[in-house]
């Protein structure tokens, strides 16, 4: 069965100002393509009829010309989901509020110290809440969807109910709280060792979380297994890759060059390897909310 490609995860850059141990991004030395190549990719997304592009990295707001890229996507009729660590939010706030439909921001602890166990940075604990406060006091400026993302790892185990207590006062701002079980990934495996958790505890802690927070209806769960072969992902080299589990470690399976190969060939190769249920579940529960709201019958 063919899977309709309507959401693309675009890893624009490997570079980032942080060194998060759980990072699911490309190697940090990978730079973004030049602006003309980025525009060409946007045009290809438009020709494919893509509904959503998730801008991620690395830190996508470090891409030279990122404001122009976001405006180009919006002009192409493509909705933008921006995943940012919030460091550079204020520098791009005007364009974010002009162009972004879903703002995805991370929280990985109930204190700055716990947040920094996996992020190696305490400052983004503050800037995360700065964003929430911005949209609580200026609700008309908020992107249509705001998603909080948290990684379940040895660094955050046992802290989820405490995080929920901090987030509950912002229930009017938060549309989704997505909890990702840590994936052991082919890049920076040595750094990640200190936060890799034992398997089996994710479901239990998530059940406890849902039973002890008023945010339960907003929580989405992404276990490690549910994300295997679950993305149409374009990396900073313009390769289409499928994150694929191999003996408990996720590797990126390259299936084609997005700029240099015919789209039909790239898509055909992707269709051969993807797990359709995982792709749909990881995208449509969140982004489908806005699609449904904006549809003629929504």
Quick take:
This protein has ten helices and ten strands. The mean pLDDT is 95.
How is the secondary structure organized here?
Blueprint: E1 7-11, H1 35-48, E2 52-56, H2 66-75, E3 79-83, H3 93-99, E4 100-106, H4 112-119, H5 123-137, E5 145-152, H6 160-167, E6 176-181, H7 189-192, H8 202-211, E7 219-222, E8 233-234, E9 239-246, E10 249-257, H9 263-273, H10 276-294
Parallel strand pairs: 1-2, 1-8, 2-3, 3-4, 4-5, 5-6, 6-7
Antiparallel strand pairs: 8-9, 9-10
Key terms for this structure?
about 300 residues; ten-stranded mixed sheet; about 20% strand
Can you give a write-up of this model?
This protein has 298 residues and is an alpha/beta fold. It has helices at residues 35-48, 66-75, 93-99, 112-119, 123-137, 160-167, 189-192, 202-211, 263-273, 276-294, and strands at residues 7-11, 52-56, 79-83, 100-106, 145-152, 176-181, 219-222, 233-234, 239-246, 249-257. The chain has a ten-stranded mixed β-sheet, with helices on both faces. Helix 2 (66-75) packs parallel to helix 3. The mean pLDDT is 95.
Strand order of the largest sheet: 7-6-5-4-3-2-1-8-9-10
Share of helix, binned: 25-40%
Largest beta-sheet details: 10 strands, mixed
Uncertain stretches of 5 or more adjacent residues: none
Question: Would you report the number of β strands?
Answer: 10
In whole angstroms, how far apart are the ends?
27 Å
Helical stretch tally: 10
Query: Shape from CA axes?
Result: globular
**Structural class of the secondary elements?**
alpha/beta
Helix-strand pattern: EHEHEHEHHEHEHHEEEEHH
- Radius of gyration from the CA trace? 18 Å
What is the arithmetic mean of pLDDT? 95
Strand content: 15-25%
């Amino acid at each position: 069965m063919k899977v309709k490609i309507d959401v693309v995860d675009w890893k624009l850059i490997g570079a980032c100002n942080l060194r998060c141990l759980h990072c699911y991004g490309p190697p940090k030395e990978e730079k973004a393509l030049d602006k003309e190549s980025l525009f060409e990719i946007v045009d290809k997304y438009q020709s494919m009829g893509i509904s959503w592009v998730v801008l991620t990295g690395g830190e996508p707001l470090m891409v030279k010309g990122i404001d122009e890229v976001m405006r180009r996507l919006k002009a192409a009729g493509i909705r933008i989901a921006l995943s940012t660590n919030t460091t550079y939010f204020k520098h791009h706030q005007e364009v974010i509020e002009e162009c972004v439909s879903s703002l995805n921001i991370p929280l990985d602890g109930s204190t700055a110290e716990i947040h920094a166990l996996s992020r190696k940075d305490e400052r983004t604990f503050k800037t995360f809440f700065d964003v929430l406060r911005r949209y609580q006091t200026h609700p008309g400026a908020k992107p249509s969807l705001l998603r909080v993302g948290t990684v379940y790892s040895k660094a955050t185990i046992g802290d989820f109910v405490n995080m929920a207590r901090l987030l509950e006062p912002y229930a009017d701002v938060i549309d989704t709280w997505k909890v990702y079980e840590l994936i052991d990934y082919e890049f920076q495996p040595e750094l990640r060792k200190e936060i890799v958790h034992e398997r089996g505890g994710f479901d239990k802690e998530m059940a406890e979380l849902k039973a002890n927070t008023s945010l339960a209806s907003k929580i989405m769960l992404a276990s490690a297994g549910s994300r295997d072969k679950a993305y149409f992902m374009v990396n900073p080299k313009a390769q289409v890759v499928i994150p694929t589990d191999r003996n408990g470690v996720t590797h990126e399976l390259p299936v084609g060059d997005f700029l240099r190969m015919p789209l039909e060939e790239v898509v055909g190769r992707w269709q051969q390897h993807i797990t359709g249920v995982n792709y749909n579940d990881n995208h449509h529960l969140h982004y489908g909310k806005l699609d449904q709201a904006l549809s003629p019958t929504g």
